[in-house]
Amino acid sequence: MTACMERKKFLTTTSLLLGGAFIRTKTWASPTKKSIVRPPYLQPGDTIGVTSPSGTITLEEIKPAVDLIKSWGFAIEIGKTVGQKDGIFGGTDAARIADFQYMLDNPNIKAILCARGGYGVVRIIDQIDFSHFRKHPKWLIGFSDITVFHAHIHHHQRVATIHSKMCNSFPDDWPNADALKQDTIHSIRKALQGERLQYNVAHHPSNKIGQGKGELIGGNLRTLENLAGTNSDIETDGKILFLEEVDEPLYNIDRMFWNFKRTGKLDRLAGLIICGFKTMPDDPEEQHFSLNLQQIILEKTKDADYPICFDFPVGHQVNNYALKCGCKHQLDVTPTATTLSELFIS
Question: What pTM, to 2 d.p., does this model score?
Fold first, then answer.
């Protein structure tokens, strides 16, 4: 356990009436002293760079995203890695480093949209120079494998980023896309233009009632687990942690949550948000794992006094809404609903 986890962080515990039930509000001090920096929000005419630091993707595949973003009033600069292929990657490690570095350092690019996830960022993260980005921050957008960037930037640069869908999730036929798909895509535009994000979610019977305030941090569970002990590891004290996962058997999810528990990442949260989890079915020829998703998580957090919610609309699914990582949020879990609200800091 790190020194920051060993320090006492508890500041206040209060009780209040919310949704007809008394709940406890727990506030912990964050171990990180430097305040989060929000990059400038985008204005009409600003340029968004599109790059592929993870998996390979073609120009044709990103065209629906490019066309729609241009209709919002933004310009697009397509990186050299789009259309490249080196095995499963969007170009060689060197090519992906160079393209991403160009996007970071180019003052005319005001936001960076990752074209897709997959795998590859961990191969290049330690070779990227963030010194210019720290002085001139810009929004970085993506999820899944892009969780590496969210975690690394949050820890070292303390710059807010956007966890959201990427180019490969934009519908091919926008006018005829269903309302949910359109709404999730528009949440990216709202985040980039500085709208305050707030999401209201139906009650889940396994939720744990409460209220918490803190910086929002998280992403893909397996990716975050693999960052443990590295230069990109996350600190969770006093923060609202959100997690999502796809195509993992329940026993693997159980193992990953044991990792989070044993490394102290679940000890002093301000709140825990369990997003979309698509689990792999059990092998019919093998014995079934005895716990479901909710039981796995509640087992690891049985002594926690922070709010926990399930089925939040983020992850490898259609209802994958944008979240501003690093920004302060309030999580309210009541007996009837869950609300996650971005808090503006004056």
Answer: 0.90
